[in-house]
From TrEMBL, chains A, B, C, D:
Name of the protein in question: Transcriptional regulator, TetR family
The UniProt record lists the keyword Repressor: yes
Residue ranges the UniProt entry marks as DNA-binding: 38-57
Family matches, as InterPro entries: Homeodomain-like_sf, HTH-type_Tx_Regulator, HTH_TetR, Tet_transcr_reg_TetR-rel_C_sf
Gene3D superfamilies in UniProt: Tetracycline Repressor, domain 2
Claim: Transcription regulation is one of the keywords in the record: no
PANTHER family in UniProt: ACREF/ENVCD OPERON REPRESSOR-RELATED, ACREF_ENVCD OPERON REPRESSOR-RELATED
Organism ancestry: Bacteria, Bacillati, Bacillota, Bacilli, Bacillales
Residues of the HTH tetR-type domain: 15-75
Pfam families documented for this protein: TetR_N (PF00440)
Annotated GO MF terms: DNA binding
Length: 213, 213, 213, 213
DNA sequence: TATGAATGAGCTTTCATTCAT
DNA sequence: GATGAATGAAAGCTCATTCAT
């Protein structure tokens, strides 16, 4: 749980009660959904009075946004972290496959540490325009450009077929997402050989978009 | 809309009011979600008294299930229709790529005609165990076996690499789903060259899993 | 059941549907009470459309009154039947104890044949002014005078102590009612030696109010 | 009313609103019955929002049970209070008639102070299994054994005829109940000479079951 | 800052009653 | 007469939010 709280915690300090509220809200909402979770339930599990929730989050939806927004930011963080971009362009990765491997491993660990948060994000994205906004902004301003840059770079390098970037993205992203959803949400209890799965997936992806094919 | 009602209508007749109720429920729920749509709203839009809804669907959730269950069945219908299986095994399709093409085209048209229904299915799947049950049953009993059969067949024929079926499915299905979601839900207003998109997608998929690579 | 319908049937003929409605209403209301029984349930059990009930009884309460009013009349019928009064005054019964015995036996059989109807009467008496009216009228106009007449007669004859009639009634009536309620409603399944019970009860009553004591 | 609230109040404190709710519920339900009294009416009379009722009693039926259960307990309280039993066996009462007199006086006062509560109990007993349960438990575990003990004691002492206890109880209890119902519910407005009535009633009862007869 | 009783609008659901067929 | 779809008022209940303490 501490990892997950790292994802959420901003620079300012939170009171212990506020942390309890967030934890409880995350547990309950990820289990039962936003509309099936009442503030009184959250308060009870957090060991806090119902009014206390509204001292910290003036609205139930505010509480949801406070949970979900940092996830959106963090999910895509490495993609636009200066460090990452630098690594790519300073050829820390010899090939697109290497980059993909590093990227997937990194995001895999993040997902593993934040399953409940990601569940909430996926489930509620459809219903809350506020969240959709945040998501779209991050995607178009950060993720998409970073992706494009990287793809252009490795195309130039001869690692990739000359497909439109959009097409490549539409292959790569759902494949990764699909794997993660299956891995963590649909069949979390299956025995997975994660490393093998990832290698295989990359093999197939590169078979589809790599230059050699 | 008439197409969509075909997806829902059973053999027996519905009263005009019942059809109106279904239509209104579909519109509203697909726009705003199940929990943000009240039965009084549905009644108002359907031009019907609120009690009339409960004469036909004894529960609000019953109404949802009546909307969503036929979609689950129809989404996967061609996969387990005798006709389809026959076609596959009587070599109506010379290659897995051909099969894929026919399949995607067919499902693309279905999706196009049923966007609101599919939106509802995707959005509510997470929260209603009844729906999850129906989905799981159809998937494990129908879709998955049909897929396996087809994959085995074309593997034997030498069309496909010798990857585990599960891995192939985990590549192919999310890729197709991802495309459709982008096409019909995330960016429905973008100008799409559907035929080209599909061809490209198949190219990449076959690059990843086809025998030639 | 045929006996019970005798209690209800007036001179005019009823259609078979109407009889079915009455039967079903009696069963359901005596089991679950008036407010827990819906007209649609009654219709279903009667094998009749809901509207048909309202063709015969313009109101749900009308139906109840149609069930309960004849019971009130019949419960007390023997008390004011000319025949009964005649018997009393022509000394068909040698003693008040004899009269009591005949009376209790008679009412016992009536109760036995009409348990559901009596249950309904007892349960709903409290809530429906219409029923209370009917009950009060019958009691003050018929039962009470007949009782007084008989008591005066047997007092004069020296069978009874010189207690106020009201006091005697307040001993006799609740004792009989209490026995019947215990016998038919509270503990209907206990094995009863009815004849012995009745004899004992009369013994005690006469011990309390009879002249010998 | 304060007396009545004593019957209901548990050791813990109630908020003033909760007291108002109870009072209003008792008034309305005893006048019109449970099913004819809506929670909104209760709220209005109590000067409280409807939601407030459900904060204190999670169900309308819970409210009813909260009203009725303490009555059941208190109605029979003296019968199984150690003090009462002691009194009986330490011959505080010289005869069964004395005991009866003390007992009736005591219960008469209780009834007088709790008419609405008792009305509710009598009226709703028929329809609510929860209440029936509570009633049966108290009767078989407390009232019945205490009665038996007392009857055996005074039989041995030669005060009572050798009738079966059950028969005695079936005479005594309905007679007392019948008197109280007539006195407080059926004809509360008649001018009563209570002391005389009670004396007379005891006379008759003892005439019926006493040893001298 | 924290509490939790109180609020009241809004929800789903029930059901006696009506009426066109 | 009989039907049963339709009605709509009213019910019990939920819950995010407020506010005096």
């Amino acid at each position: 749980m501490s990892d997950m709280m790292d994802t959420l915690r901003n620079e300012e300090n939170m009171t212990p009660k506020q942390i309890e509220i967030l934890k409880s809200a995350i547990e309950l909402i990820s289990e039962k959904g936003y509309y099936n979770t009442s503030t009184s339930e959250i308060a009870k599990r957090a060991g806090v009075a119902e009014g206390t929730i509204f001292r910290h989050y003036s609205t139930k939806k505010d509480l949801l946004v406070a949970i979900v927004t940092p996830v959106i930011t963090n999910i895509s963080a490495p993609l636009f972290a200066t460090k990452f971009v630098d690594q790519v362009f300073h050829e820390d990765y010899n090939s697109f496959a290497d980059l993909l491997h590093a990227f997937i491993n990194n995001r895999f660990e993040f997902a593993q540490a934040n399953v409940p948060l990601i569940k909430i994000l996926l489930q509620e994205l459809a219903f809350h325009p506020e969240i959709q906004m945040a998501y779209k902004r991050v995607f178009t301003e950060k993720v998409y450009p970073a992706f494009n840059q990287a793809l252009d770079f490795y195309k130039q390098k001869g690692d990739l077929q000359n497909l439109p970037n959009d097409t490549i993205i539409r292959i790569v992203v759902p494949t990764i997402l699909g794997f993660m959803m299956t891995r963590f949400i649909l069949q979390p209890d299956k025995e997975w050989d994660d490393e093998a799965e990832i290698r295989q997936m990359i093999g197939v992806i590169m078979g589809g978009i790599g230059a050699g094919s």
